Amino acid sequence: MTVVRINKFLADSGISSRRKSEEYISQGRVAVNDKIVTEFSHKVDIEKDIVTLDGEKIKPKKHIYILLNKPKGYITTVSDDRNRRTVMDLVKSKERIYPVGRLDYDTTGLLFLTNDGELSQLLTHPGNKVPREYEVKIDKPLDEDDRQKLLQGISLEGKRGKFLKITFPFHNDKKIASIVCEEGRNRFVKRMFRKLDYTVLELNRFSFAGIMLDVPPGKSRNLTYNEIQELKQKYTD
Length: 237
Ligand code: URA
Description:
Blueprint lengths: L2 E3 H7 L5 H9 L3 E3 L2 E2 L6 E3 L5 E3 L2 E2 L7 E6 L27 E2 L8 E7 L2 H8 L7 E7 L5 H9 L1 E3 L2 E3 L3 E3 L8 E6 L6 H8 L4 E9 L2 E2 L7 E3 L2 H11 L2
Parallel strand pairs: 9-15
Antiparallel strand pairs: 1-4, 2-3, 2-5, 5-6, 7-9, 7-17, 8-9, 10-14, 10-15, 11-12, 13-14, 15-16
Helix pairs in contact: 1-2
The site of uracil has 8 residues, from helix 5.
């Protein structure tokens, strides 16, 4: 059972904006199972209830949530004017979906795609501090002083940026680090290292919003019902 408020149901269905939908409800033009509904908070079961506007049935929009393991050599947009391969070439969906945030052309790893604008916004909103975990390979061993600087925070184009955690998964190899950050600014990880004179050679995102990458490169899967509910709960106050 998936239950949502009638104003959200109408807005999600794509027939109109949330504001316009609320106008229709106030005007008594919306019915649920043949009964006029005038409360915006009226709950609708997407799978069972029949919702009509002026007597016309409104089809609920099916939300799609995909987890993709992006390989190198794909750009994170829906289309590209230079005809490069995009992440959309890797997923098949009848619905129009789009990436949540972005990964660089040469970055690999976990990328969500969805048509749920609300969840997409929650996951990319800086205030929500959504954790991202990356494995990064740099051109020389990371010095302990620099590791501390990255953890304490450095100025990046006038705004402070920091990593929350930096560990070395292969203890003797300080050129490979596992990092946690809560930032989605463009090229954030690469720019943080660049600022301290390191070059990122490889970057792989293995976790986003607490969900681990668990499919091989180029493959995708649907998020489970529980994963979707958990994400929504975590980032909605
Ligand atoms: N930070 C980067 O520098 N690049 C990415 O693709 C993601 C995070």
